[in-house]
């Protein structure tokens, strides 16, 4: 039987098979779905944070103005393990929210100076708040803020910066006050490494931003400020908000123009208080060194320097040992050094430093001295008083030419009662004052002890005199005097006893009776001599007879007066007197 092979007839099919419709359709549908998914999917945002507290992958939402705009898709540590990397998928159409000025932060329950915030997250959980900016350049990498910003970047107002050396001066969220009214908030604080001070960013909202001009000054507004210094006790009270949390206030100083409105990012300095602003205005001054040989306890830097009650300077350093070799030896030999500043702006306008130095030299030559005085009895604060305590004999003739700023009216100057114009009685050519001595690069102003120091010195001198008294000799003499007095008292006591015995004697007791008897006899005698008694009549007749005899003897006595020998030789009788004849006409 013959085997015959059957060969198949093969031919190419030129028609397309409909079976390929299914896979092609599947590819097209998948591609369209993939394209649609990527097209309608928002951008991916990467955020860095110090920790992931309250952030949960797949659950934590990203919101802007309480609207969901994205969701966190992953939370993991960075490669250096120092930060947390948070990735989130934004919703479609939110790409315009992400730019260079956008800010993100975690919203969670917080308690701060401004009160309690984020209470709605207690039930829903923490979320990330997105604050969009105005920039046109997109940005997809952010660092989460530690604290939420106070105002959005597009909020109307002005942002300025304050510089302060005190790190605890302000805190984020503190209010900004203008004459007690809240006009803004402290937004941010950071430490400037280059300038080594704190830098605060402040936001003053509109329309109060017009108050921030070139000449405004900022100072801390503590709730209550108590200042007990040499100038007295001063208490300042602010609002209750600043009393609890502090703040900052600003204003234009009295007499200053407001100036032009400032632009954003203007720089200002933060002062401690309003008084320190006034003190900082006097930036032209002369520095002098004082040496006190008494205690300076109570004198502090910033204490006033006054001339007869008017402040003319400030104490710069107490004590001042800078640029001094062997400070202890200086203190023992010269006294405690104190550096002061005489400020030209406190005296009168247009006073230059050379003029001030010349007037000070002249005032010192006329007795200007620095004295420590008590400014506050409650705190014991001291201040320095410049006054003319003693005159210089060399310049006594030039007292009429006293310096304008410091010298008192000189001797020899009389005031006109009608015109109130001082007329110098003596016009003298002023002598040039001697230059002041220097030490450690500063001129030295002479000092004098204060009133209490003078009293203390006099007390010490009195004690020295008492100590030098011959107390032992005085005590010895006093002891001898006491002994002599004791003997005299004993003798006096014996005399008193003797007198007492004499009084008590019988003879002394009989003396009154005998005296009475003698008085009675004397009375009887006087009664016998009274008018009408025989004795009285006899004496009277005898006196009359004696008077007659004396009248009879009168011619004899007259004759003897004229001629003493009339008893021997008879005297010629005197002729009778004849009257003189009158003159005939």
Radius of gyration: 60 Å
Task: Please give the order of strands in the largest beta sheet.
Answer: 23-24-20-21-22-19-28-27
Tell the overall outline.
rod-shaped
Total count of strands:
28
Poorly predicted residue ranges: 391-404, 407-430
Structural class: alpha+beta
User: What does the oligomeric state look like here?
Assistant: single chain
Number of helical segments? 10
Mean pLDDT: 77
| Helix fraction by DSSP (H/I, runs of at least 4) | 25-40%
Distance between the termini: 257 Å
Largest sheet properties: 8 strands, mixed
Strand content: 25-35%
Describe, in plain words, how this protein is organized in 3D.
The protein has 585 residues and is an alpha+beta fold. The chain contains ten helices and 28 strands. The strands form six sheets. An eight-stranded mixed β-sheet has the order 23-24-20-21-22-19-28-27. It is rod-shaped, with a radius of gyration of 60 Å. The chain starts with 20 loop residues before the first helix and ends in a 23-residue tail after the last helix.
């Amino acid at each position: 039987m013959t085997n015959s092979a059957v060969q198949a007839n093969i031919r190419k099919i030129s028609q397309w098979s409909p079976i390929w419709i299914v896979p092609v359709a599947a590819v097209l549908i998948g591609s369209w779905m993939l394209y649609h998914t990527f097209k309608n999917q928002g951008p991916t945002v990467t955020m860095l944070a110090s920790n992931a507290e309250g952030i949960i992958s797949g659950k934590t939402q990203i919101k802007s103005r309480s609207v969901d705009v994205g969701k966190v898709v992953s939370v993991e540590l960075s490669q250096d393990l120092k930060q947390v990397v948070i990735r989130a998928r934004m919703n479609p159409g939110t790409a315009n929210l992400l730019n260079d000025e956008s800010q993100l932060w975690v919203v969670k329950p917080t308690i701060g100076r401004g009160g309690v915030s984020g209470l709605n997250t207690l039930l829903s959980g923490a979320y990330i708040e997105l604050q969009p900016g105005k920039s046109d350049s997109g940005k997809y990498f952010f660092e989460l803020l530690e604290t939420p910003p106070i105002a959005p970047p597009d909020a109307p107002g002005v942002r300025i910066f304050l510089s302060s050396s005190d790190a605890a001066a302000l805190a984020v969220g503190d209010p900004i006050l203008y004459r007690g009214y809240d006009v803004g908030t402290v937004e941010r604080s950071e430490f400037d490494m280059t300038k080594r001070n704190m830098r605060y960013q402040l936001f003053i909202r509109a329309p109060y931003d017009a108050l921030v001009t070139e000449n405004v000054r900022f100072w801390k507004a503590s709730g209550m400020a108590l200042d007990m210094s040499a100038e007295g006790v001063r208490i300042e009270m602010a609002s209750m908000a600043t009393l609890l949390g502090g703040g900052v206030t600003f204003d234009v100083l009295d007499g200053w123009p407001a100036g032009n409105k400032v632009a954003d990012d203007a720089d200002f300095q933060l002062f401690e208080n309003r008084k320190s602003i006034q003190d900082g205005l006097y930036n032209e001054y002369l520095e002098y060194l004082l040496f006190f040989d008494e205690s300076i306890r109570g004198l502090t830097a910033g204490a006033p320097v006054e001339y007869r009650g008017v402040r003319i300077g400030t104490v710069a350093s107490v004590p001042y040992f800078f640029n001094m070799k062997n400070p202890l030896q200086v203190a023992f030999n010269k006294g405690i050094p104190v550096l002061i500043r005489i400020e030209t702006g406190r005296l009168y306008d247009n006073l230059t430093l050379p003029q001030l130095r010349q007037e000070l030299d002249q005032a010192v030559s006329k007795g200007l001295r620095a004295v420590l005085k008590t400014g506050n009895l409650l705190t014991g604060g001291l201040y320095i008083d410049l006054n003319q305590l003693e005159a210089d004999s060399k310049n006594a003739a030039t007292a009429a030419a006293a310096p304008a700023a410091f010298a008192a009216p000189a001797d020899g100057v009389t005031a006109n009662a009608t015109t109130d114009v001082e007329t110098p009685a003596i016009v003298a050519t002023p002598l040039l004052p001697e230059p002041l001595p220097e030490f450690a690069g500063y001129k030295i102003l002479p000092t004098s002890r204060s009133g209490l120091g003078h009293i203390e010195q006099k007390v010490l001198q009195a004690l020295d005199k008492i100590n030098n008294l011959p107390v032992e000799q005085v005590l010895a003499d006093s002891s001898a005097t006491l002994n002599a007095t004791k003997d005299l008292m004993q003798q006096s006591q014996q005399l008193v006893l003797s007198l007492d015995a004499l009084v008590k004697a019988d003879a002394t007791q009989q003396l009154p009776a005998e005296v009475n008897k003698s008085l009675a006899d004397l009375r009887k005698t006087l009664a016998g001599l009274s008018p009408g008694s025989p004795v009285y009549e006899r004496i009277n007749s005898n006196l009359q007879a004696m008077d007659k005899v004396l009248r009879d003897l009168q011619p004899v006595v007259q004759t003897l007066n004229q001629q003493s020998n009339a008893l021997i030789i008879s005297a010629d009788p005197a002729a009778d007197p004849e009257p003189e004849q009158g003159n005939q006409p």
